[in-house]
Amino acid sequence: MSSSQSPRPKPSETGTGTGTNTGEGFRRPSALLITASVVTFVILSLGLGLGLGLGLGLEHHHASASSSAAPSSPAASASLLPGSGADPNAKLEEWRRDPGDYFMDMSWNIHAAPTTRHYDFVITEGQGWPDGVVRDMLFINGKFPGPLIEANMGDRLVVNVTNKLSANATAVHWHGMYQNGTNWFDGTTGITQCGIPPGQSLVYNFTLDQSGTYWYHSHYGTQYLDGILGPLIIHAPEEADARQLYDQERVVLIQDWYHDFSTVNLETYLAPDNENTEPIPDNGLVNGMAFFNCSAYDSDYGYTCFDNNTCSVLSLEPNTRTRLRFINTGAFAEFELSVDNHTLSVIEADATLVKPVSVHRVPIHVAQRYSVILETNQSTSTNYWLRGAMVTNCFTGNNPVLDPTTKAVISYSGNKTAVPSDASVDWADALPEHCIDLDARDLIPSTQKVPPGATKMWRLDFSFGIGAYQLDRAKFNGTSWSVLDNTTTLQQAIDGLGGGTQEGAAASGGSNSWAVEGPVGAFGGDQFVLGVSTDNQIDVVDILLYSLDEGSHPFHLHGHEFWILQTGSGPFNWTHYHEEIYPAGAPGIADALRRDTFTLQPYKWTLFRFVADNAGLWAFHCHIAWHLEAGLMMQFMSRPDVLGEATVPEAVRGLCAASTGR
Ligand SMILES: *[C@@H]1O[C@H](CO)[C@@H](O)[C@H](O)[C@H]1NC(C)=O
Ligand SMILES: *[C@@H]1O[C@H](CO)[C@@H](O)[C@H](O)[C@H]1NC(C)=O
Ligand SMILES: *[C@@H]1O[C@H](CO)[C@@H](O)[C@H](O)[C@H]1NC(C)=O
Ligand SMILES: *[C@@H]1O[C@H](CO)[C@@H](O)[C@H](O)[C@H]1NC(C)=O
Ligand SMILES: *[C@@H]1O[C@H](CO)[C@@H](O)[C@H](O)[C@H]1NC(C)=O
Ligand SMILES: *[C@@H]1O[C@H](CO)[C@@H](O)[C@H](O)[C@H]1NC(C)=O
Ligand SMILES: *[C@@H]1O[C@H](CO)[C@@H](O)[C@H](O)[C@H]1NC(C)=O
Ligand SMILES: *[C@@H]1O[C@H](CO)[C@@H](O)[C@H](O)[C@H]1NC(C)=O
Ligand SMILES: *[C@@H]1O[C@H](CO)[C@@H](O)[C@H](O)[C@H]1NC(C)=O
Ligand SMILES: *[C@@H]1O[C@H](CO)[C@@H](O)[C@H](O)[C@H]1NC(C)=O
Ligand SMILES: *[C@@H]1O[C@H](CO)[C@@H](O)[C@H](O)[C@H]1NC(C)=O
Ligand SMILES: *[C@@H]1O[C@H](CO)[C@@H](O)[C@H](O)[C@H]1NC(C)=O
Ligand SMILES: [Cu+2]
Known about the structure:
Blueprint lengths: L40 E6 L7 E6 L43 E2 L11 E13 L6 E6 L8 E4 L3 E8 L8 E4 L25 E7 L4 E7 L10 E7 L4 H4 L4 E10 L4 H8 L13 E4 L23 E6 L5 E8 L6 E5 L4 E6 L2 E8 L2 E3 L4 E7 L8 E7 L14 E7 L44 E11 L5 E5 L12 H10 L3 H7 L9 E2 L9 E4 L6 E9 L5 E5 L4 E8 L4 H7 L13 E2 L1 E4 L3 E9 L3 E7 L2 H5 L3 E6 L1 H4 L6 H8 L5
Parallel strand pairs: 4-7, 6-11, 12-15, 14-22, 23-27, 26-34
Antiparallel strand pairs: 1-2, 1-14, 3-12, 4-5, 7-9, 8-10, 10-11, 12-13, 15-20, 16-19, 16-21, 17-18, 17-20, 21-22, 23-24, 25-26, 27-32, 28-31, 28-33, 29-30, 29-32, 33-34
The structure holds 2-acetamido-2-deoxy-beta-D-glucopyranose (12 copies) and copper (II) ion.
One 2-acetamido-2-deoxy-beta-D-glucopyranose binds next to loops.
């Protein structure tokens, strides 16, 4: 039986994506002889008091074409759709991402020769209602969430970002990309670029020297919370073995969601005398959709709420294996992911493939990614809930309208519009008391990359405290970050190290006040910058990060992956460190997990290592959007010898001159 999926929408709605997929349908486990059928998302209309509040359905067929019946499955008949009562003429709102856009095609050639993939991103503002509550939002190419970028390792990515906002600048960061040799395309406001002013464009242009599940998002203030985010998936031949473990794959974004524009919440959060009271989300979204009970808002709240709001349905075939690529694209909340009655097999953490580990729940903090394999081998008598339970212990307050469990539906019962019955049962495992990662020691990379011995070691602290004007600020070793006006630390470093000229570099000899190992004072009072790989040699840097705070924080380092070497609380055992961790060939750490975002628990410490071979100014920060804006960011300046001879492309440099204040 052959099946075919029609070509997915192109990688770029307005561009010339070269990653066209003309799939032949997904690969099937030969032993099971499952026939491929319509595989698509359904959007359920919720509310109207049906059952658990979920009843009516309508479907969008964009991503699938022919269908065939799995013999025993009642799912086969297309006439089942849409469910009774749904408005058969209802259309996907034009700003909504078609769920089919996040299906990945198993016929993608992971061995293809390198190519250049072009995308156009046009950033606009408007109104949207992902969960029914109407609010001001930002869109990429008119849609939320952003388009799937899919590429191969070795490809070049060229993205022309055009800012059509009325008043504010923007900048897009490619989370996890090494940007080796192209630091100025890292997209980090005040560090690698000034914002793109309204009416202007910037063409990001860099090669992809890595593979796995990544994402992109605005790195301009808290702007990504308003909608500028999307998935970035990179394939590579290394993936071949893992691909034997699944028949199809889907991208699943999960995020917290607020009903107000992010700057409104930010202002409240940073208001004087407001210590440690981060805005609590109003809801969560899966692939930009979720149910919200409009009756939670009476008219006093001033929101418009549409009762036809929807949640994502992942429609699968029985007895197939699906790789779900989860990405937490949110602002604040960690989620515990689970599927009722199904164990999940974790095979990837932040782009590192790992030996499969079976779990009931997967904790995923902001900016982290996990791939899990879901096998549809349970009873077809019901649909099942996919749950993202926010770890509310990590909130310091209470939001009465928040349902802390964000839900979507896994359907292979044959009825895509049916509410999961009482036979869909959550795992009994208690939710954790804190925001905490899966234990790194349980996640063994499938490809061992033994950490080289360290050459440098730094201890860093961070804390929150009330400072001047009673403002709650976060500090790295006493320095609270603020965004620079009209310049970037990258620009300052290049100018200071040699003005981008050979003569200048020679004159400075790479040893002026900017080419400093350790804290670099020259950047001024609100930039904590640590110089590494300063002596024309490549350092292997160990960072021992101590939390002096009562909250959990997901820390992200730009431009690198790092090895998680050790976590603990209380005193650090220096003897053990010097004897058994620092040197090359230390046996206990050969299988250390590599990732780019880890969660540090209250008053604990984490020791991690990275190779500082990548010239540039690299942000290291808490990815909770509120904490970043409170100043919880520092930077590494790597390889001043290379930076002293570098030139920031005119298009990037010019953004600071064009200045919008940032
Ligand atoms: C919405 O909330 C109201 C009030 O709590 C409740 O009566 C109603 O059943 C809820 N609706 C759904 C669909 O959950
Ligand atoms: C939901 O209701 C709003 C307001 O009536 C409408 O604009 C939108 O198209 C509806 N969405 C769907 C999917 O029916
Ligand atoms: C980027 O897109 C804008 C808006 O469409 C266009 O004006 C500009 O020419 C594009 N830049 C490049 C280099 O293609
Ligand atoms: C622009 O930024 C200002 C202040 O930062 C904010 O109040 C406003 O809502 C923003 N507007 C948009 C469309 O981003
Ligand atoms: C980055 O580029 C440098 C050459 O400038 C190279 O030595 C290094 O291996 C590269 N690092 C990565 C992670 O690709
Ligand atoms: C991207 O960068 C490469 C290498 O510097 C260059 O050859 C190419 O012309 C650039 N492409 C665009 C569209 O700017
Ligand atoms: C279903 O698959 C999981 C692995 O994904 C396995 O652990 C479990 O035993 C299977 N259950 C049945 C009923 O086959
Ligand atoms: C799907 O389930 C719903 C809820 O139980 C029911 O109303 C509907 O008739 C079912 N559809 C089919 C085709 O069985
Ligand atoms: C789901 O698991 C629960 C608890 O083990 C069980 O009672 C229930 O029957 C299972 N549901 C299905 C559809 O197998
Ligand atoms: C950061 O502060 C800690 C505690 O005071 C100190 O031990 C450490 O050396 C400092 N790190 C740097 C890079 O200055
Ligand atoms: C510190 O590490 C050394 C070497 O591994 C070990 O002998 C010693 O017992 C440790 N000290 C403590 C307090 O755990
Ligand atoms: C940044 O540029 C803007 C616009 O040119 C100007 O108003 C502002 O004063 C500049 N800020 C600094 C700190 O130079
Ligand atoms: Cu934080």
